[in-house]
């Protein structure tokens, strides 16, 4: 069982700000069973419209197993609900694999962010492998939708690069993210690229 509380200067999700490029507060809790089953919940303040703040509440379940050559595999499902504005809640399913210091995942959403279209998202991440040291953070993702999404495109990519520093009960991340276009929520204030600072306290 583990938990965390986080403050982030800009809540970026797949290259799009869900906080209108403002600060966000987040809390998470997770449980991992010895059999490989896991479950958890996550909540964050969001701002999908310039003057209308809300809350995102996400729950997930999954099953992980260890394979050959140090690889692990997992499958899972998640449901994300947005308090306001309404109509953006959606479910998503994924398969993933991970090794030492990296992971990859393929996700599928039948109604991405509540829209009448499905979407697939593929991502590869480089994750911290050591504590009490500066380590690099790298991410690349690509999203493809069956029909054009709210920003008018069927596909887009996003990338993030940064550094992380971990203590026993604290972690700090500074990253720069960019995307192929700036479309998204509160579009008039969205930028393609932005810096983000994340401070997490493990509970």
- Main sheet makeup: 12 strands, antiparallel, barrel
Structural class per helix/strand content? Answer: mainly beta
Q: What would the CATH topology be?
A: Porin
Give the amount of beta strand, in percent.
Answer: over 45%
Per DSSP E runs of 2 or more residues, the count of β-strands stands at 14
Global geometry: globular
* Helical content band: under 10%
Helices and strands, in order, run as EEEEEEEEEEEEEE
Q: Which superfamily, in CATH terms, is the homologous superfamily?
A: monomeric porin ompg
End-to-end Cα distance? 10 Å
CATH class: Mainly Beta
Low-pLDDT stretches: none
Annotation field: number of helices: 0
Rg over CA atoms, rounded to whole Å, is 17 Å
How many domains, in number, for the residues?
Answer: 1
Mean pLDDT: 91
CATH architecture: Beta Barrel
- The strand line-up of the biggest sheet is 1-4-5-6-7-8-9-10-11-12-13-14
Q: Keyphrases for this structure?
A:
Porin; mainly beta; 203 residues
Compose a concise summary of this entry.
By secondary structure, this protein is mainly β.
